[in-house]
Amino acid sequence: MLGLSTALMLSAALLYHWVFLKGAREGWPVVSTLVRFVVRDEMEQQDRFMRENLDAMARKVGEMQAKLVQLEALGERVSGLAGLNPAEIRATPGRGGALVSGRPLSMEELKATLADLDELTDHRADVLTVAESRLFDQKVRKSMIPTQHPVSVGHLGSSFGWRIDPFTGRSALHTGLDFQADTGAPIVAASGGVVVTQEVHPAYGNMIEIDHGNGLITRYAHTSRVWVKKGDLVKRGQKIAEVGTTGRSTGPHLHFEVLVDGIPQDPQKFLNAGAGLAEASAQRAARR
């Protein structure tokens, strides 16, 4: 009995299939309508699937375009800190080669490609962010090194080192540089920092000390007039005082010292380094 039922079901299925195919080929109205309905429904599903995927990819492309704009801005900041020309960073490199035909990408392959590109963009953004942070830190540190001449007029008198003291006539260590200049000539900060001392000293006269961080301090002595006070934040090249002859001095000049952890250093080494940096910067600018 079970075998007979199965045989009847298979026969009915085959008959239905044959009738359906015959009706589809010969254009029977009922069958044609059913075929169009099935085909239309399938096409609508495919169309809906494509629209949804295209919308998703459009959003992804929009996100990537926004990231690329951010990367370009970040690249310009990094190149500026590194002293590079941003136009060279943005330039599109030349490309070429023989055309090799390939097959179209499937939807899944296109999604995978976009995902890989998105991950690569994020990675490069992270790298550029770290580079920007480090370059900015280096720039700040360089800006705190006293490399600018504190007096732009006059000439160098006594250098750093041992000399004959003008008052005692004996050998003594001269702990700075003496810049000979007229009374009232402007004195500027050799670097940015905070004024930690502004006082009248028995030997240094009207004296200013600026803390540049990391144990680095510059001292400006024998000034006639002071333009800053303790606690002021000063910038490189800012006028802080005027040349004078106060304190233990034989004539108008600036006594300039550089101290590292309280130990006097030769200021000329710092000023020479500043001249070298300025020359290198000018050469880079000329090449652009």
TrEMBL record:
Protein species of origin: Ramlibacter humi
UniProt keyword annotations, A-Z: Hydrolase, Metal-binding, Metalloprotease, Protease, Zinc
Any one Pfam family match given in the protein's UniProt record, by short name: Peptidase_M23
Protein name stated in the entry: M23 family metallopeptidase
Origin superkingdom: Bacteria
A biological process from GO: proteolysis
Stretches assigned to the M23ase beta-sheet core domain: 173-267
Signal peptide limits: none
